[in-house]
Structures are given as C-alpha cells and as structure tokens.
Amino acid sequence: MKLVNFGSLNYDYVYSVDHMVLPGETLSSNSMETFCGGKGLNQSIALAKAGVSVYHAGMVGEDGESLIDMCKENQIDYRYISKVQGKSGHTIIQLDKQGQNSIILFPGTNGLNTLEHIEEVLDYFQEGDMILLQNEINLLDQIIEKAYEKKMKIVLNPSPFNEKVKACDLSKVSMFLMNEIEGYQITGEKEPEDILNVMESKYPSTEVVLTLGKDGVMYSGNGMRYFRESFKVKAVDTTAAGDTFTGYFLASVIEGKSIEEALKIGSFAASIAVTRKGASSSIPAKDEVENRLM
Asked: Residue 51: which of 240, 294, 208, 249 has the closest Cα?
C-alpha cells in the first residue's frame, strides 16, 4: 500500500506578546519565531517519524524552499509538491503570557491546486492505496471524487470544518479522523456516543476515529466500537497532538496492527508530543515511542 498526503504546507510566524493586540493599537512583540507547519505537513512528518513511506502532494510559493527542505529532512517524498508563483501559505500567531493564541491564516498557494495537478498526482496511485486529506487546501471535493474513482482508501481529517467540507460527498470517505468539535459540526450531537451513533447511521460503511483530548479516543467501524483512555501527562503544548496521533495511528494500521493496538500507539505518541513545545518539532521518533511503551 502506498500513502499520499494531499495537504497544506505553511510557514508559522509566532509573535510573543504581553497581550493580544487591541483595535487601533500598535504593539511591540517580545520575540518572533518562524516554524514550518500546516496540518498537512505536520501529519506527513508524523507518518514519516512513525516509519511510513509517505508522499506529500501540494503547492508552495517562490518562498517555499524551507518547506521542501523540511520534507527532505524527514524523508518525505516531495516529488508531487509543485512550486508556483505567489506566497506560500502562512499563519500569523499572537502568543500571550498565559499561552493563549490568536491566529490569522493566509491560504496562499495552498489554495492554488489545479485539476491537472490532482490528476498528475493520482495517476501514480492505484486501487487499495491510501490518501490522507485535511481541509486546508482547495478542490477537496474533486480530490475525493477522483480518489474514489481509483478505489483508493480515503482518510479525511475534516479540519477546519466549513462549507468546503459540506460540499464533499462524505459517503465516499473510508475513514474519518476527527475531534469532538468536528464531530458536533458534522452530526449536531455533543456526546461522543451520540456522535458515533449518527455517523454509523449516515455512513454505515465508514470507519470513524473520534479523539477526545485528555478523555481518550473512540473508534467505530466494522460493527465494533473501542475506547482508549489517554495517557496521563502534564501537557505543555497541545498544538501537534492530533497530528501526531494521526500519523502513528495510520502507521500502525498500515503495518497490520489491530485497531486497539493502533489506538494505544497513537495515543501514547500524542502524549509525548504534548509534553514538548512546538508543532512538528514535538513529534517523537518511532524508536522513542516503542522504547517508552515497552
């Protein structure tokens, strides 16, 4: 099975401030740091660190060399990342002394994927291969349609949930990886069991992985349900927790591990990530996860 992650690549510009800037205010920051990120790239890094050969597809701008370098450093196959005119996607993040943040997202070249590029990417993949998607790029509905035509296993993290997700034929998704907020947005239900009940009713042939933060994770699919408690740690930064779980859970599934074991490994890897600052830099390597889980 080959795996392609068709997703976003962003620069994160993080400004440390005393408080969030107010309307009309000019505020000096205490520091500014730049990180490579985007939900797509973070999940590819997690997959690669979990030991999976992953192809990343997407778009970067003329300023995107560092994003491609990040792929190289993590042994991510970047042949399907195209460089086009314009600015790469980026975020402007204010981070205050209490650890709260506010974020402005500029899609940039993440919104410039074309049907021709999608077809070029998917031509390399075939029935039974896996495609991982999030909602930080354009033409999500078209990618789902074309991947479904090829009988690929479509894994969707519907984040951020908006009208673009609603425009997709979600019955063609093989597996949802989502949190409680996205579960509520899709189903209108707030309780985890109720979310899964609605998902089973609406998409009976689809697997659902519902992450519950510190309360654990639930799985529904193939007529079965599982619950896995979270590992209790002191969280420092939860930024990459979901992306780390996604990478290690899918890697375990691809390796043929049971769902229960995949939930355990994904949860443990995420519990390591939240004890460290940063996004992709907090994702643990496979050896560390395996050695500490023994």
From this structure: 249
